[in-house]
Amino acid sequence: MTLNYHRVISNSKPWTFLRLLFTWKASIWKAIYLELLCFLIVYGALAAVYRYVLDSDQQKIFEGIVRFFDERLDYIPLELVLGFFCTKVFNRWTTQYDNIGFIDK
Length: 105
What we know:
- It is a single chain.
- This protein has helices at 6-10, 16-21, 28-53, 56-71, 78-98.
- By secondary structure, the protein is mainly alpha-helical.
- It has a domain at 27-98.
- This is Bestrophin homolog.
- It is a multi-pass membrane protein.
């Protein structure tokens, strides 16, 4: 789908870039808004609980749990995750290629 933005940028003002950035059709925000919203809600809830609900002893326990998981982040190698991602991308590409109609067939 082709979107024409020439009318928007013809009268350029300081907020024109932001207006283009938040244009809903074919926007990057449309692709990631659910994941971003979930992340921000969970992050905000954890930060509020850590800062306002937990006392100093409980904060130290929470920090110990965070350190525990941080040390074990290397147990899942990045190459493994990247391999799964590349396989998924390649399978999508081959599926699209297989669905192209050819005249010779």
